[in-house]
Structures are given as structure tokens and as C-alpha cells.
Amino acid sequence: MSPKLTGSPEGLEAAFREWTDLFMRRSMHGLVRSSKDLGLSVSQIMALFQIYRRGTYDVSDIGGELGVTSAAASQLLEGLVQRDLITRVEDAHDRRIRRILLTEEGRRVLQKIRSRERWTQGLACALTPAEQERVIAALRILIEKASQLEGTPGHSPRP
């Protein structure tokens, strides 16, 4: 372990950056490869994952999550509708709102993308059961703390 990765806030931040760089490089490589193989844009794949995680979305929610306008989100989603990966349904309480849901084909595409993430499977298998438990516990703490910071003024990520 490098000397800067010691038990201090600076060392922890350096370790976060090192892990994030590695994780993003590996994840983005797989995402770009899947994008090309499936003929989908990375934004479309990200939208599919967002819809999967939440269960349902409306167009403005997707736009906000992806950092694009509602018009751009609508166009992006139209491509997914045409490929039968998502469907639009009227909101039960407000007919002006169209909810976005994954189709079975959309779920199959996400499964295909996830099955290509062999490096995370390999990493998990490389850890001993005791290490797996420690990593799970640490990740749960990080997820909880990061969730608490989301939307908190003054806690925007540093460049």
C-alpha cells in the first residue's frame, strides 16, 4: 500500500480516488463495449439501469438523472420504445403523466450487460469469505453516508 493511503482523512480520500479510478475505468470499458455490441448509446443504457433501479420513471425524472433536457430525454427514450426495451403508460392518478417501465426485453438486455461484468465476479471470488464480509460492511457504511450527503449544500464533489 502506498504511504499516502494511511489512516487519515487524506489517506481515505486518496484510497477513494484510487478505487474510483480503477472501478470507473473497468466499468466504462464494459459499458462502452456493451453499447457498441447492442447498438445503444451509453445514455440509453444508463436510462435502462435507472428505470430498473427505480421501477418507474417519468420523462422529466430521467432527464434530471442523466443531466439532459426533457426534450432530449424524450428523444432518447423514444429509441428505447422503438426497440421494445421500455414502454410508456398513463399514470393512474394523472393522465397527463406518462410513466416509463422496462419491458421483458429491456430486462433481458440489462441481464446481458450485467453478465459481461465478469471482472466484478472475479474480484468477489478472489476475496476470502472474511474479506468479503469486511468489504460488504464497509460498502454499506459508504452507501449510507453517501446517501446522507446527497443533496446536502456544501457537499458537492471536488474536481
Termini gap: 24 Å
Shape: globular
- Under CATH at level 1, the class of the largest domain stands as Mainly Alpha
Radius of gyration: 19 Å
Q: Strand count, sense and closure of the main sheet?
A: 3 strands, antiparallel
Query: What does the average pLDDT come to?
Result: 85
CATH superfamily of the largest domain: Winged helix-like DNA-binding domain superfamily/Winged helix DNA-binding domain
Number of helices: 7
Order of helices and strands: HHEHHEEHHH
State the total count of DSSP E strands.
3
Key structural traits:
3 domains; disordered C terminus; single chain; 3 strands; 3-stranded antiparallel β-sheet; mainly alpha; Arc Repressor Mutant, subunit A; 67% helix
